[in-house]
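Re: that backbone. C-alpha cells:
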C-alpha cells in the first residue's frame, strides 16, 4: 500500500518513518533565559542527569539552502530508552530553532529517528519528495536532516556513527547509573 499523503503538505506521511524503527528522541526548544528552569522541571520528573554541550558553534550546517553556523546549547537526558533533548539559541543565526522561537516561543520541536543506513534513508526521503529544511554533518561527526512534513513537530533523522553511538550510549548509561541526585547537570566535554 503506498504512503498516505499528509493533508497539510501533500507529502508522504508517517509510513516512510516506520522503516526507521521507533522514535528515539523528543526535542524541545527553550528560551535561553529559561534553560536552567526547564532542566530543573525535567529533573523533578526523574529525567536526568542532563549532559550538555553549551554555546557550541555548529559546523557543517545548512538551513533553507544557506550555509550557517548557529551557536546552540544542546542538553540530553534519558527516561528509560527515550532521549529528551533541550535546545536553545545564543545568536540570531537562522536555524530551525531560531525560527521556532520567533514564531511559537517555546515547546515541542521535533521527533528524532536514528539510522545506520543514512544514504538509503536519504534516497527514500528524496524519492518521496521530502526536502530537508535543514541538514548537515556536524563538522564530520554525523549526517542529519530536519524535514517539515506536517505536524506535530519536525522530523529529524540522524546518522548513527561511532561518535553518535558513543554519545547516545553515554547519555543512556548515565541515566541508568544515576542515583537521582548526584551531578544532575554535566558537560559532555
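Recovered sequence:
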Amino acid at each position: 500500500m503506498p504512503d498516505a499523503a499528509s493533508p497539510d503538505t501533500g507529502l508522504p506521511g508517517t509510513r516512510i518513518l516506520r522503516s526507521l524503527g521507533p522514535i528515539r528522541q523528543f526535542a524541545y526548544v527553550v528560551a535561553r533565559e529559561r534553560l536552567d528552569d526547564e532542566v530543573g522541571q525535567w529533573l523533578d520528573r526523574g529525567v536526568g542527569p542532563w549532559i550538555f554541550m553549551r554555546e557550541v558553534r555548529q559546523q557543517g550546517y545548512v538551513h533553507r539552502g544557506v550555509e550557517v553556523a548557529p551557536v546552540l546549547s544542546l542538553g540530553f537526558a534519558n527516561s528509560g530508552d527515550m532521549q529528551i533533548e533541550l535546545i536553545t539559541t545564543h545568536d540570531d543565526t537562522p536555524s530551525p530553532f531560531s525560527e521556532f522561537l520567533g514564531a511559537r516561543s517555546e515547546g515541542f520541536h521535533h521527533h528524532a529517528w536514528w539510522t545506520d543506513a543514512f544514504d538509503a534513508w536519504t534516497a527514500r526521503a528524496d524519492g518521496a519528495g521530502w526536502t530537508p529544511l535543514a541538514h548537515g554533518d556536524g563538522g564530520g561527526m554525523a549526517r542529519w536532516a530536519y524535514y517539515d512534513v506536517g505536524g506535530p513537530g519536525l522530523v529529524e533523522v540522524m546518522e548513527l556513527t561511532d561518535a553518535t553511538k558513543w554519545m547516545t550510549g553515554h547519555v543512556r548509561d548515565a541515566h541508568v547509573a544515576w542515583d537521582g541526585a548526584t551531578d544532575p547537570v554535566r558537560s559532555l566535554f
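Residues 55 and 80 are 27 Å apart (CA to CA). The chain has one domain: 25-177.
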